From TrEMBL:
PROSITE patterns: G_PROTEIN_RECEP_F1_2 (PS50262). It comes from the Eukaryota. Gene3D superfamilies: Rhodopsin 7-helix transmembrane proteins (1.20.1070.10). The keyword Phosphoprotein does not apply. The chain crosses the membrane at residues 24-48, 60-80, 100-118, 138-156, 203-224, 236-258, 270-288. It is a multi-pass membrane protein. Its main location: membrane. One of its GO terms (molecular function) is G protein-coupled receptor activity. Pfam families: 7tm_4. This is Olfactory receptor 149-like. InterPro entries: GPCR_Rhodpsn, GPCR_Rhodpsn_7TM, Olfact_rcpt. Belongs to the G-protein coupled receptor 1 family. Keywords: Cell membrane, G-protein coupled receptor, Membrane, Olfaction, Receptor, Sensory transduction, Transducer, Transmembrane, Transmembrane helix.
Length: 310
């Protein structure tokens, strides 16, 4: 019989092929992380402080901002910790937590984008019934539902990954614990689990994307029926911001999890963009394309910095 020792901790090797760039990456990623936290916090304050933004669309945007604060916080603090010269070790439990919360927050955001597309569909295609259909109760159920199904998906993927035995090498060739790199370290045949994970991770975003595509097909058809040029412009402006955020969120998933032959360096680069850059850009996308948010943000900044009103 082989004497197999159980792994109690893993070592994060970081982004492949970046040896000697730790200081530069630390400054760059810390800047991204700070801007992400500040931008989403400002969006939250702008929505909470303005009664005119207390509508279903901004309620879901508020939840998106909360998740955009937590999403990069899953992997960034540990990455910044070891980039500053500290230990790269992470406990077994810490690795499990990283993988679970990464997929919980990511899946929840995916469902949330779908709900936001449905909200825009109702607002533009059924404007007279909008307040009835998107009542406070319905919004609360939809918001809770995104987190519930995100939790189920994350629990399934985490259980699938860590029910395998880890008894040999413990060096994770990545900057955080994710499914593809963890399966490589397992002391068992992972081919069947890789296929199940591939289907699960691929099917969920694909289903959401098809629902979003259906919603926006109906939205575009309805917008083209609007006779007012100003009405069409406002509708397109709101929807284009949402579509831009969706593309920034969904494209990394396709590149990372659905490519036939994984490329570690490409995966890490895309993952960093997905973890840090996309949550940082979301506040800009939604504020720059929306007069109501810009007005509320200006009011918040004036109160914080005591700027004179214009």
């Amino acid at each position: 019989m082989r004497n197999l020792s159980v792994v109690t901790e893993f070592v994060l090797l970081g982004i492949p092929h970046t040896e000697g760039l730790e200081t530069m990456l630390f400054v760059l990623f810390l800047s991204f992380y700070i801007f992400t936290l500040m931008g989403n916090l400002l969006i939250l304050l702008a929505i909470i402080s303005s009664t005119r933004l207390h509508t279903p669309m901004y309620f879901f945007l508020c939840k998106l901002s909360i998740f955009d604060i937590f999403f990069p916080s899953v992997s960034s603090p540990k990455m910044l910790f070891y980039l500053s010269g500290n230990s790269r070790a992470i406990s077994y439990g810490g690795c499990v937590s990283q993988l679970f919360f990464y997929h919980f927050l990511g899946c929840t955001e995916c469902f949330l984008y779908t709900v936001m597309a449905y909200d825009r569909f109702v607002a533009i295609c059924f404007p007279l019934r909008y307040t009835i259909i998107m009542s406070h109760r319905v919004c609360a159920i939809l918001a809770a539902g995104t987190s519930f199904f995100g939790c189920i998906q994350a629990t399934f993927l985490t259980t699938l990954t860590f029910q395998l035995p880890y008894c040999g090498p413990n060096e994770v060739d990545y900057y955080f614990c994710d499914i593809p790199v963890m399966l490589k370290l397992a002391c068992a045949d992972t081919s069947a689990l890789e296929m199940v994970g591939f289907i699960s991770v691929g099917l969920m975003p694909l289903s959401c994307f098809l629902l979003i595509l259906t919603s926006y097909s109906c939205i575009v058809h309805s917008i083209l029926q609007i006779r007012s040029t100003e009405g069409r412009r406002r509708a397109f402006s709101t929807c284009s911001a949402h579509l831009m955020a969706i593309l920034l969120s969904f494209m990394p998933v396709v590149l990372i999890y659905l490519q036939p032959t994984p490329n570690p360096w490409l995966n890490a680069t895309v993952q960093v963009l997905n973890n840090l850059v996309t949550p940082m850009l979301n506040p800009l996308i939604y504020s720059l394309r929306n007069k109501d948010v810009k007005y509320s943000l200006r009011k918040v900044l004036q109160q914080v910095a005591f700027l004179p009103e214009k």
